[in-house]
Amino acid sequence: MDHIDRSLLARLQQDATQSYAALGQAVGLSAGAAHERVRKLRERGVIRRTTAEVDPAALGSGVLAYVMVESSAWMGESADAFAALPEVLEAHVIAGSASVLVKVRTATTEQLQDVLRRLYAIDGVSGTQATVVLETFFERPVDPTAV
Amino acid sequence: MDHIDRSLLARLQQDATQSYAALGQAVGLSAGAAHERVRKLRERGVIRRTTAEVDPAALGSGVLAYVMVESSAWMGESADAFAALPEVLEAHVIAGSASVLVKVRTATTEQLQDVLRRLYAIDGVSGTQATVVLETFFERPVDPTAV
DNA sequence: CCTTCTGGCCGAAGAGCATTCGGCACCTCG
DNA sequence: CGAGGTGCCGAATGCTCTTCGGCCAGAAGG
């Protein structure tokens, strides 16, 4: 995992459709060598998958909110309960007064309210505190060249 | 944008490396027709880009935190100031007591503290409240088939 | 009703690319 | 010194992307 690998990762984050020839030229390697490095990055799990990034607004999910979920019990085994709600895009166990933080996308605020209702229905959940996003400045992946 | 487009999006989210032949077969189209649909989805901006998903832990960013940023001024034009910090992966203007919510990844809690210091240095920022993530249940993209 | 136009699909063909392989250079360790 | 391992190059082959002409169905308009 040297600076060449990091550069390859950064370029694949920007555009995973480019050819290995172009990729290799950008970092000073042949197409075969670039391919081999990328193959190993996948094998080691550094590259989890290559995916199409879809615009949420195009799918009708115009409302973004973060919800602090308070609980009266240990939530460490509740991942599946949160994953069962398709509108929940992220779920994290956090330190602090709440116990779980979730990221939610819905089409309308009415649907957001419905998600809150379903969150309440999860075992151990005793309260929620929603924060609605007014404008997103940016969302981006980790920078492999900056770490 | 019918159910075939949504199915194509869902499959491309899971694996953007598969061939158009496989993609077409999965939705009952020829390779050429599948390619044409995907091309238009890109053209319309529904597919923003195709990207390699990198494991943050592999890059040494093992600490994830959400930071509520309080401000004493209008922050609507401060996107660039937040984008200048590479550790800041998301920045949103929010409704509520704080005014900006940012997502931060660093290698250590010491570096997190340094990011907080740099956040304070942004014009108009009057306070921060960091929430450290103990365990991430999951992070996933929007589900095109569920909306 | 019939014509015309548009949009989407199929199937084929050519160009371009991914993937593999042998060979070579370099480094490390016995 | 020699053996093993690693990483790279350059070429070959097989597959894929990409484009194109032709076809069909449905809409629009006379």
UniProtKB/TrEMBL annotation, chains A, B:
Gene Ontology molecular functions: sequence-specific DNA binding
Origin superkingdom: Bacteria
SMART domains membership: HTH_ASNC
Keyword Transport: no
Pfam families: AsnC_trans_reg, HTH_AsnC-type
Boundaries of every HTH asnC-type domain copy: 1-62
The entry's keywords: DNA-binding, Transcription, Transcription regulation
The protein, known as: Transcriptional regulator
Species name: Streptomyces longispororuber
Organism taxonomic ancestry: Bacteria, Bacillati, Actinomycetota, Actinomycetes, Kitasatosporales
